Amino acid sequence: MEIKKIGVLGAGSMGNGIAQVASQAGYQVVMRDIEDRFVENGLKAIDKFLAKSVEKGKITEEQKKGILSRIKGTTRMEDLKDVDFVIEAVFEDLELKRSVFKALDEVTGSHVILTTNTSSMSVTEIAMATKRPEKVAGMHFFNPAPLMKLVEVIRGYYTNDGTTLAVMEMSRKMGKEPVEVKKDTPGFIVNRLMIPHFLEAIRMAEEGIATTEDIDKAVRLGLNYPMGPFELMDLTGIDIALHVTEYLYKELNKESKWSTPTLLRSMIRAGKLGRKTKGGWYKY
């Protein structure tokens, strides 16, 4: 079946970025969130990003208008009833995602592939909330979705070959480079490598080995990474780092390397959640 309309669940930084990418690829998009203010903020974020692209000469004003015209914001789950493909991008909470997929299973056609943008959680457990686990897969975009090229395509235990191939192809049509994660393991590829990197950086700061600024600087200049670990956690959210760390600790046999450093918990208790709060670690 030809895919013409894509449903995106969530209008936050990941959801609106994915909606923009889908629209730029020529698809009609229904972007749904639970409150009008979240939807409006998501649409404003897309408009702002595209305006900057026009200023830089990357797209024209007409192209911007076309992209925006293909995105419909809504708070109604029923508005997803005629989509051909779904990408879920709600908060990283397993029970929340399972409830969303149960609702999607009821409102969308049985032929529709349902994907989750989870960065670490079990695709299989999410899929089991539906009556079509073979049509559920992980489709993990990276932040910011309009700029980052990678998409991790994750097979759940029941995901069939046709679903995997379709999600890989959809990723390419959106201008992304997909990699296939053949086993539904916590953290997949990138977070399985990145979270220990975060935790060791926090422990080094905790032990007084170096400042957070100098650890970031060493990583940027010595490893040639575009961002240091503390800068990256500030961008993606310190609360997200804690949530994923605790999930991996629980799922990967409670190995000590996944245990949460005291300093990370202290940051959360101090209320410095790091969601787009530039310099959260540096100000602590």
Please characterize this protein's 3D structure.
- The protein has 284 residues and is of the alpha/beta class.
- The chain has helices spanning 13-24, 36-55, 61-69, 94-107, 123-127, 161-173, 190-206, 212-222, 229-236, 238-251, 262-269, 280-283, and strands at 5-9, 28-32, 71-74, 85-88, 113-116, 136-141, 150-155, 177-181.
- Helix 1 crosses helix 2.
- It is built from 12 helices and 8 strands.
- It folds into 2 domains: 5-181, Rossmann fold (3-Layer(aba) Sandwich), CATH 3.40.50.720; 190-283, N-(1-d-carboxylethyl)-l-norvaline Dehydrogenase, domain 2.
- The protein is 48% helix and 14% strand.
- It starts with a strand and ends with a helix.
- The longest helix is centred in the N-terminal third of the chain and has 20 residues, at 36-55.
Properties at a glance:
single chain, alpha/beta, N-(1-d-carboxylethyl)-l-norvaline Dehydrogenase, domain 2, 8-stranded mixed β-sheet, 12 helices
CATH-assigned fold name of the largest domain:
Rossmann fold
* Strand arrangement in the largest pleated sheet: 3-2-1-4-5-6-7-8
Q: What is the top-level CATH class of the largest domain?
A: Alpha Beta
| Total number of strands | 8
Query: Approximately how much helix is present in the residues?
Result: 40-55%
- Point out poorly predicted stretches: 272-278
CATH architecture of the largest domain: 3-Layer(aba) Sandwich
Number of domains: 2
Strand content: 5-15%
